[in-house]
Specification:
The complex is a heterodimer of chains A (128) and B (105). By secondary structure, chain A is mainly α. In chain A, 91% of the residues lie in helices and 0% in strands. The chains are: A mainly alpha (128), B mainly alpha (105). Chains A and B meet through helix 1, helix 2 and helix 3 of A and helix 1, helix 2 and helix 3 of B.
């Protein structure tokens, strides 16, 4: 029985490590992309809508990675709760699940809006 | 349990710093656009708000990392608060861009 507990805890720690790794890499990626955008656009004068769209895309990407990291946290918490089911732990699990649902909901909204915009733009070009 | 990830505090600090840089950078860019490029006050304002939004994205990442580290109810509440803030600022930015008629938000 003890080995199962230890194994579960190890898996939980692994899930948390995965989440931390994802967050770290995602922020690095966002920073690098932002720097590239900044370098490319700092010369052009009028801040067109395109600059905003590109920035928006970077934000969306970061948001999606964060959502993925949050899923790993849910997994880690599930594992932890299965080993030591105190009410505090279960409460934490519930809270993280709620947060993950909220984040995904808002992210999905933003993604849908961005895609609708892309659609409009493509159709506008075709009609013109 | 989480202390086995030794680089966590460093990573949190770095990401928070990055977020702060983004906010400051956008603020400076707004001032520059006002003074040197003679853009409107609305444009400058929008740039600052965009800085806040992008900065909050990084703060969200840092808070998530802290949640992995601390796992206290307060930390989870902090994450929820930052998420709510970011969502609100995004809505404000979208509405302002629409109102100003700049390329659809």
């Amino acid at each position: 029985m003890e080995t199962f507990k230890t194994l579960t805890l190890w898996f939980g720690a692994g899930a948390e490590a995965a989440a931390a790794l994802i967050i770290g890499l995602a922020t690095i990626e966002a920073t690098l992309r932002s720097l590239v955008v900044f370098a490319r656009h700092s010369s052009s004068q009028p801040p067109t809508g395109r600059l905003h769209d590109v920035k928006e895309e970077i934000r969306l990407r970061l948001g999606r990675w964060l959502a993925l990291a949050l899923e790993f946290l849910v997994a880690a918490d599930i594992l932890r709760t299965s080993v030591a089911p105190t009410w505090t732990e279960i409460g934490q699990l519930a809270a993280i699940v709620v947060l993950r649902t909220l984040l995904n909901y808002f992210l999905q909204n933003e993604i849908d809006k961005a895609e609708a915009r892309e659609q409009d733009r493509a159709e506008g070009k075709r009609a013109a | 349990m989480p202390p086995e990830i030794p680089f966590l505090p460093v990573l949190v600090g770095l990401i928070e710093f990055g977020g702060a840089l983004i906010v400051v950078g956008h603020g400076a860019g707004a001032l520059v656009s006002l003074a040197l490029r003679r853009r409107s006050v609305e444009h400058a304002r929008l740039m600052v708000v965009e800085g806040a939004l992008s900065g909050l994205g990084f703060k969200l990442a840092a808070t998530l990392l802290k949640t992995i580290e601390l796992q206290s109810p307060q930390q989870i509440a902090a994450f929820a608060a930052i998420l709510a803030l970011r969502t609100f600022i995004k809505a404000v930015l979208t509405r302002d861009r629409k109102r100003l008629g700049i390329a659809s938000p």
